[in-house]
Write a structure and sequence with these properties.
Number of helices: 6
Order of helices and strands: EEEHHEEEEHEEEHHHE
Number of strands: 11
Shape: globular
Structural class: alpha+beta
Strand content: 25-35%
Distance between the termini: 7 Å
Radius of gyration: 17 Å
Largest sheet: 6 strands, antiparallel
Helix content: 25-40%
């Protein structure tokens, strides 16, 4: 299967980039991961970096094993590594991260997430599937109290219900069912700093105009940058994958 990808991770208007991204390729298995750190004071960027490093370690060491086994392991190792670093640094409340990851192996795709970093799956230049955020606005949308499109500007959009780095509980990540990868045209894995500034409809329109992941990502980035200009723009990161 000919899978192409491109990725970006940018400061936005912030002094420190607390996002981390990574791609691991090993023996016909590819894992794409985006993590968005929370906490500031050096904690958020450390947490996201540890998560991406844990995904790389699990998928590199597990080369040849099913990605359906490796994906949950990667979330669990991320949690373990972050908690260990919290203890070492004495920063339990300032070292947490979201994560979204896509694994493709043998023509199959599976993804997982925790928090509000998202995966989108596209078919015929439209969003076919997306992960549901572990956030207060997403819960309000699911209960019918707000519309789905109102999640982006909701005052509680940064209130997350699940993240990596919470001591005393197993990380409550979600993993998808297995899908035929070629059922989809493209995937987008991104942090909230990215998807908050571009609509799903715009993502699809720009995908239709793009021949490569680089073109698609560059056009989406232009939209994100334009919308974020002259605001307290968050870090933003994304990995675009075309099947």
């Amino acid at each position: 299967m000919n899978t192409q990808y491109d990725m970006i991770s940018c400061l936005g208007g912030r002094p420190v980039n607390e996002d981390s991204i990574g791609v691991t390729e090993c023996g016909g298995l590819t894992c794409f991961v985006v993590a968005d750190g929370l906490g500031g004071h050096g904690g958020g960027d450390t947490a996201s970096r540890l998560a991406v490093r844990a995904f790389d370690a699990v998928f590199s060491e597990g080369c040849g094993r099913p990605c359906t086994d490796l994906l949950p392991e990667a979330f669990l190792r991320s949690q373990e590594d972050i908690l260990q670093e919290q203890q070492r640094m004495g920063l339990p409340s300032q070292m947490k991260t979201t994560a979204a990851a896509l694994a493709i192996q043998g023509g199959q795709a599976v993804w997982g997430h925790i928090g509000d970093s998202r995966l989108y799956a596209f078919e015929r230049n439209k969003v076919k599937l997306r992960t549901l955020d572990h956030s207060v606005p997403q819960m309000l949308a699911l209960s019918g109290e707000i519309r789905e499109k109102d999640i982006r500007g909701h005052p509680d959009r940064n209130r997350l219900l699940r993240v990596l780095g919470v001591a005393g509980e197993a990380p409550r990540f979600e993993v998808s069912e297995v899908w035929p990868a070629d059922q989809f045209q493209a995937f987008l894995v991104c942090s909230d700093g990215f998807w908050e500034l571009i609509t799903e409809k715009e993502m699809g329109k720009l995908l239709k105009k793009s021949r490569t992941p680089r073109e698609w990502l560059a056009q989406m980035r232009d939209t994100v940058e334009q919308r974020g200009r002259d605001t307290d723009m968050d870090n933003y990161s994304a990995i675009a994958v075309m099947i």
